[in-house]
């Protein structure tokens, strides 16, 4: 048997959901471990430290996954080190490849974010109004440091070269298994590609009107998920529940649609789409019936940027350059 | 001398582009701030084009399409209108001045209107100053 593939997994600024998703492939992971040797999986699973990673030779890891966005100086450092130590680097999940939920923080100032997180929230108990500081002298003798908050959220590829991208928040476990099979068999597309089936959520979705020989009609009314209960078999978009299925990768097997929830685009853009949010605007707007419906859409969802760029703000043209004061 | 903005104009070939042509024939005077790009229909202008123009430093973006009912492809301009209404709100919500972006209906017979729109838009952009991407306000 050939040597095992040396595998690394780093959690940058994410929530560890992507790691949970990898563990979710359950027994199949045990089978996969015949071909994979986990040399680094921090800070979540394996007992390795960053210094162990730093001690590795350059290019020691064959395949490394990063999940989570770059939100602080620690993420910046570890991602750079991991890039150096790995032959192939995969941005795994929506945060790593697109910016994820945290990227929406770029629409707010650091003060707003910190006040919300450490002062204003109902459940926060912080009478002195203390905020995290990158450096602090504790009891006059212990010099303590914390990673500093970066000016804006960046995706992994805005910091280092990324070989492959995987969408999803988190990626669906069945898809992760296919991915691991592809990796083990060495059946990977050219570098710089998204690892995806290339199909849109609508392609996979059982509700697609084309599956039932029905025509797509212009949408005349707009609902949010809190308004009533959508029909469980009919296309949500046709019912007026705004769904981003048409422009999102369907490697998730249309999971949200299966439980009557519209797609919000965590899978990432289908191939050929440069800016996810702009394409959402384009797709949704052209399926609306008239200007009045467009107005209603704007009124119902009070923040268009946060709706259309829910998972992809960092990778959007808008964030990269347009938003004033957010340049790195 | 006041600053001369750089406007990217997407002009529908059936109306606004012809309108711009007529503006020339009529010897209408308007500032040389607009760089027109001929498109088959205002409905073919993707929101990405607008974002990309602004991201690359255009001070303003103008989309010119046919009046309602006049679209050569029947409903292209209706779709433009819906898209751009939503896009405008999205740009605004992301903290960017949506006044840099404008949608106008200018027919092939409205050469004078074209000149007026460009003049008005240029004046507005002069008040706004250069695009923040280039270090403006």
Kindly describe this structure.
The complex is a heterodimer of chains A (328) and B (137). With 328 residues, chain A is α/β, with parallel strands linked by helices. Chain A has two domains: 5-101 and 151-194, 3-Layer(aba) Sandwich (Rossmann fold), CATH 3.40.50; 201-322, no CATH class. Chain A is 32% helix and 15% strand. Chain A has 14 helices and ten strands. Chain A has helices at residues 17-23, 27-32, 50-55, 73-85, 94-98, 110-120, 173-184, 201-204, 236-239, 255-258, 276-287, 291-300, 304-308, 317-322, and strands at residues 5-11, 36-42, 61-67, 70-72, 86-92, 135-138, 142-145, 149-154, 164-166, 193-194. A six-stranded parallel sheet of chain A has the order 2-1-3-5-9-10. A two-stranded antiparallel sheet of chain A has the order 4-8. Chain A is globular, with a radius of gyration of 21 Å. The mean pLDDT of chain A is 90. Chain B is α/β, with parallel strands linked by helices and 137 residues long. Chain B has one domain (7-131): 3-Layer(aba) Sandwich (Rossmann fold). Chain B contains four helices and four strands, in the order βαβαβαβα. Chain B has helices at 16-25, 47-55, 76-93, 111-128; strands at 7-12, 34-39, 60-65, 101-105. In chain B, α1 links the parallel β1 (7-12) and β2 (34-39). In chain B, α1 (16-25) packs across α4. The longest helix of chain B has 18 residues, at 76-93. Chain B is globular and about 40 Å long. Chain B starts with 6 loop residues before the first strand and ends in a 9-residue tail after the last helix. The mean pLDDT of chain B is 92. The chains are: A alpha/beta (328), B alpha/beta (137). At the A-B interface, α11, α12, α13 and α14 of A face α2 and α3 of B.
């Amino acid at each position: 048997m050939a040597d095992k593939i040396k595998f690394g997994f780093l959690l940058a600024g994410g929530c560890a959901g992507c790691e949970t998703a990898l563990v979710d492939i359950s027994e199949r992971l045990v089978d996969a471990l015949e071909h994979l040797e986990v040399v680094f999986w921090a800070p979540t699973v394996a007992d390795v430290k960053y210094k162990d990673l730093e001690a590795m030779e350059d290019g020691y890891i064959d395949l490394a996954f990063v999940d989570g966005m770059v939100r602080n100086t620690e993420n910046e450092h570890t991602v750079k080190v991991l890039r150096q130590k790995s032959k192939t680097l995969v941005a795994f999940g929506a945060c790593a490849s697109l910016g994820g939920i945290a990227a929406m923080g770029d629409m707010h100032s650091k003060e707003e974010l910190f006040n919300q997180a450490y002062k204003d929230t109902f459940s926060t108990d912080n009478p002195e109004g203390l905020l995290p500081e990158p450096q602090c002298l504790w009891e006059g003798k212990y010099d303590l440091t914390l990673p500093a908050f970066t000016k804006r959220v960046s995706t992994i590829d805005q910091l280092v070269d990324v070989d492959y991208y995987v969408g999803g928040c988190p990626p669906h476990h069945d898809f992760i298994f296919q991915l691991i099979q592809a990796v083990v068999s060495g059946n990977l597309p050219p570098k710089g590609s998204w690892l995806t089936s290339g199909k849109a959520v609508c392609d996979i979705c059982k509700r697609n009107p084309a599956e039932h020989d029905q025509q797509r009609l212009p949408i005349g009314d707009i609902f949010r998920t809190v308004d009533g209960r959508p029909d469980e078999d009919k296309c949500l978009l046709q019912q007026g529940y705004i769904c981003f299925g048409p422009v999102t990768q369907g490697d998730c097997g249309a999971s949200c649609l299966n439980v009557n929830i519209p797609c919000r685009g965590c899978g990432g853009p289908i191939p050929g789409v440069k800016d996810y949010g702009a394409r959402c605007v384009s797709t949704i707007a052209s399926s609306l019936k008239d200007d009045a419906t467009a107005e209603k859409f704007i009124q119902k969802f009070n923040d268009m940027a946060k709706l259309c760029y829910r998972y992809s703000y960092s990778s959007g043209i808008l964030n990269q350059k347009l938003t004033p004061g957010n340049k790195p | 001398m006041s600053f001369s903005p750089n406007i990217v104009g997407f002009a529908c070939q059936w109306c606004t582009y012809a309108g711009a042509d007529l503006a020339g024939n009529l010897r209408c005077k308007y500032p040389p701030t607009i760089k027109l790009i001929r498109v088959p229909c205002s409905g073919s202008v993707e929101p990405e084009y607008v974002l990309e123009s602004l991201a690359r430093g255009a001070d303003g973006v103008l989309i010119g399409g046919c009046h309602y009912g006049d679209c050569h492809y029947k409903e292209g301009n209706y779709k433009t209108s819906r898209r751009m209404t939503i896009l405008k709100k999205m740009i605004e919500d992301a903290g960017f001045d949506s006044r840099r972006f404008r949608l106008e209906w200018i027919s092939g017979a409205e050469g004078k209107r074209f000149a007026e729109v460009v003049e008005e838009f240029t004046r507005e952009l002069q008040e706004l100053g250069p695009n923040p991407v280039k270090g403006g306000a």
